[in-house]
Each structure stands twice: as structure tokens, then as C-alpha cells.
Amino acid sequence: MALDISSIQFSNTFNQFWCYVIPLLGAYIADTYLGRYRTIMWPVGIAIVGHIILTASGAPGLLAEKSHALACFIIGLIIMGLGTGTSRLSNLSNNKLTRNRWLQAQHLAFGR
């Protein structure tokens, strides 16, 4: 993908903005719906999907069409930012994870 400098700077700035604003959404979801541990665990899967899409955007078949590769890159960037930003919730709170809390987190996340 041969992009001009302004497009590269925009994608870099957008990625930084997206990854630093999304933890607010993660905090809201954790407090309102899912709880802290589920909100940390589920976005990791979303981030993996975003990484896969970003990797796919570099495929030779997509690189032949500049617009297709760029669209795949932007979608992957948004999904990866959503996953990594939301999972940063663990950095927002400084609770220590004792053995009891760890077992409780496993029970909440996996239903064991």
C-alpha cells in the first residue's frame, strides 16, 4: 500500500486516539453490564480478530487493489483498537488479584 505521508500520519494519530479513548467504553461496559473480569477477557478475542484482519490486509491478492487493502487495514485497525483498548481496563484499576479473586474471576468468565 503506497500511501502519502498525510494518510500515514492520520492512521497513526487515529490509532493512538482510538486505543486511548476506548478504555472509557470498557470501563462503562464493566461497570454496567459484564463486570471487570469478563470485560478484560472478551476483548482479547476481539483484538486477535483485529490482528488477523491486519495481517490479511498485507496479502498479495489484496495489495493488488490499493482500495481493498486500505479498507481491510482500516477495519482491522478499528477492531484491534476496540479489543486492545477495552482490555486495558485492567490498567485502570489497581486491585490486587489474590488467589480467591482469581478463582472468582475464572468462575465468572468460564462458569466453573
Count of separate DSSP helical elements = 6
The gyration radius over C-alpha positions equals 17 Å
Structural class: mainly alpha
Could you give a short account of the major beta sheet? none
Beta-strand residue percentage? under 5%
Topology pattern, helix = H, strand = E: HHHHHH
Query: How many domains is the backbone divided into?
Result: 1
Report on the structure:
This protein is mainly alpha-helical and 112 residues long. It has one domain. Helices cover 83% and strands 0% of the residues. It is built from six helices and no strands. It has helices at 5-34, 36-56, 60-63, 66-87, 89-92, 99-110. It is elongated, with a radius of gyration of 17 Å.
Q: Layout of helices and strands, plus pairs?
A:
Blueprint: H1 5-34, H2 36-56, H3 60-63, H4 66-87, H5 89-92, H6 99-110
Name its key features.
elongated, 112 residues, mainly alpha, 6 helices
Summarize the structure.
The chain is built from 6 helices and no strands. It is mainly alpha-helical.
